[in-house]
């Protein structure tokens, strides 16, 4: 079935199936091949989410350093494959910020409780849509701080080591900020990361951790684990962890579990409340398009809301808003995740996030996920067709995809590992042609095909440019 449902063929786009055969079926229905430009054009034509592209701002080629104006039209928009690093701004961000500045200028301190954007309540419009995005109750979500600050605040409550149970388990190649946060928490409690920080490694020759191995480790070592802290999506490989199964395994053994959803929120479907995670944290500037360093999200499961024995760091804004201004220095803690808020929310940041969340609410995660599965399958199909070791030949550059081939085990980013190619040269050439890609030396390129902003034709163009760049000159 085409993305808009206008053609009835095998609807083989669920995360539990391989996307390649689905693409072949669609191409047959269209009367073309998956490798044809016409296929990409038709997929974009039938895309039910195509209207959302116009709701984002795209940099012009003339403003991007390294673009060659002799081979591209400087007034064209860039092709952007870096949503895993920083999302593009929604068009509405500018008007939202103008509204805030205008309100601040006209009302001053009166604007805290009045005007179109009451400053003291600016985070509230973000709570419910954020909760929908991560599968939580509104009372379980706070929009506050930055990602790593929220990780620390959550660990104050959920990392309570004892002499026999003091280990924090995370993946060996976790994002550096997670790694540093865990190390510092362990040291703060008087333990040694060398013995209290456990790093899970993939099997020999594999790029990702297997769910079975994680679950087995939990079962065998539960008595010594104080906290299991893993990413919903691995930032480097793009592997999606089976959060539901792993969370259940942790809950069954009474192991506290938290999730870093930096690369998962706005990328894959999440059900934190139903899964029973203890806590989760996420930034909002990647797939959620809120802007650099924007305010982050925090989830605290409802099962902990009445546990007043949990230690935590508190601030004025975690105080019940009904009595906050009594100023009697008697803490009346807000229930739920709101009790973890330290300081008043920043309107300039929450309004950026609000602009993006409104788009997610209209597009819906199930629809975005369906398109995402098709797009990564399309990228994988073309990469395998032209650049796998089997098709490229022994003397030509080749690409291995480190991201799992099962659509249910990946989001909208693919990790490409190059062999026999100069990645610096490739990135320079791609930039000259108006494509923004993400390179991690010595041999990795990460490409995100964001269903809100990217087109199938852009994937086709990426592959076409890559073929040209890697074509032998002799």
Overview of this protein structure:
It is a single chain. This protein is α/β, with parallel strands linked by helices. The chain is built from 15 helices and 13 strands. The strands form 3 sheets. A 7-stranded mixed beta sheet has the order 2-8-7-6-5-3-4, sandwiched between helices. Strands 9-10-13-12 form a 4-stranded antiparallel beta sheet. Strand 6, helix 10 (272-275) and strand 7 form a beta-alpha-beta unit. Helix 3 (92-107) packs antiparallel against helix 11 (347-363).
Short description:
The chain is an alpha/beta fold. It contains 15 helices and 13 strands.
Helix/strand layout:
Elements: H1 19-30, H2 37-45, E1 79-80, H3 92-107, H4 124-134, E2 141-143, H5 147-158, E3 167-171, H6 176-188, H7 193-196, E4 197-200, H8 211-221, E5 225-231, H9 243-252, E6 257-260, H10 272-275, E7 279-282, E8 297-300, H11 347-363, H12 365-387, H13 389-392, E9 398-401, E10 413-419, H14 423-432, E11 435-436, E12 438-440, E13 444-448, H15 456-470
Parallel strand pairs: 1-11, 3-4, 3-5, 5-6, 6-7
Antiparallel strand pairs: 2-8, 7-8, 9-10, 10-13, 12-13
Helix pairs in contact: 1-12, 2-15, 3-11, 4-11, 5-6, 8-9, 12-15
> Strand arrangement, largest sheet?
2-8-7-6-5-3-4
Please tell me the overall pLDDT: 94
- The structure class reads alpha/beta
**Biggest sheet: strands, sense, closure?**
7 strands, mixed
The helix content is 25-40%
Which blocks of ≥5 consecutive residues have pLDDT under 50?
Answer: 6-17
Say how many strands there are: 13
Distance between the termini: 43 Å
Strand content: 5-15%
Using only C-alpha atoms, the radius of gyration works out to: 24 Å
Count helical runs: 15
The sequence of SSEs as H and E is: HHEHHEHEHHEHEHEHEEHHHEEHEEEH
Overall geometric form: globular
């Amino acid at each position: 079935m085409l993305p808009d449902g206008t053609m009835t063929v095998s609807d083989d786009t669920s995360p539990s199936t391989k996307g390649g055969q689905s693409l072949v079926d669609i191409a047959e229905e269209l009367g073309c091949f998956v490798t044809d430009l016409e296929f990409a054009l038709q997929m974009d034509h039938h895309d039910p989410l195509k209207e959302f592209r116009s709701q984002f701002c795209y940099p012009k080629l003339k403003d991007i350093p390294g673009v060659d104006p002799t081979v591209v039209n400087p007034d064209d928009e860039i092709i952007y494959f870096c949503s895993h690093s920083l999302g593009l701004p929604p068009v509405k961000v500018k008007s939202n910020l103008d509204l805030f500045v205008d309100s601040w200028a006209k009302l001053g301190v009166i604007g805290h409780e009045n005007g179109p954007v009451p400053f003291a309540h600016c985070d509230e419009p973000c709570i419910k849509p954020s909760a929908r995005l991560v599968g939580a109750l509104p009372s379980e979500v706070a929009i506050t701080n930055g990602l790593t600050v929220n990780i620390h605040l959550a660990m104050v409550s959920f990392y309570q080591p004892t002499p026999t149970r003091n280990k924090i388990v995370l993946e060996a190649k976790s994002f550096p900020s997670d790694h540093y946060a865990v190390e510092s928490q362990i040291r703060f409690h008087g333990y040694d990361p060398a013995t209290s920080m456990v790093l899970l490694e993939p099997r020999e020759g594999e790029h990702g951790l297997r769910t079975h191995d994680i679950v087995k480790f939990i079962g065998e070592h539960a008595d010594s684990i104080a906290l299991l802290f893993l990413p919903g999506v691995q930032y480097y490989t793009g592997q999606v962890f089976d959060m539901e199964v792993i969370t259940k395994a942790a809950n069954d053994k009474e192991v506290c579990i938290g999730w870093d959803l930096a690369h998962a929120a706005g990328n894959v479907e999440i059900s934190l409340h139903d899964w029973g995670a203890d806590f989760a944290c996420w930034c909002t500037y990647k797939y959620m398009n809120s802007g650099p360093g924007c305010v982050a999200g925090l989830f605290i499961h409802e099962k902990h809301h009445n546990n007043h024995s949990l230690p935590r760091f508190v601030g004025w804004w975690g105080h019940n808003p009904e009595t906050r201004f009594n100023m009697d220095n008697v803490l009346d803690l807000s229930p739920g995740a709101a009790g973890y808020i330290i300081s008043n929310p920043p309107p300039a940041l929450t309004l950026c996030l609000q602009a993006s969340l409104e788009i997610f609410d209209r597009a819906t995660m199930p629809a975005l996920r369906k398109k995402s599965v098709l797009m990564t399958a399309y990228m994988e199909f073309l990469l395998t067709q032209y650049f796998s070791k089997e098709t490229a030949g022994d003397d030509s550059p080749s690409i291995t995809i480190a991201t799992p081939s099962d659509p249910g085990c990946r989001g909208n980013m693919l990790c490409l590992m190059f062999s026999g190619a100069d990645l610096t040269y490739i990135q320079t050439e791609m930039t000259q042609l108006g494509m923004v890609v993400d390179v991690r030396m010595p041999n990795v390129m990460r490409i995100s095909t964001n269903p809100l902003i990217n087109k199938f034709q852009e994937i086709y163009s990426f592959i076409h440019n890559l073929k040209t760049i890697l074509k032998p000159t002799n």
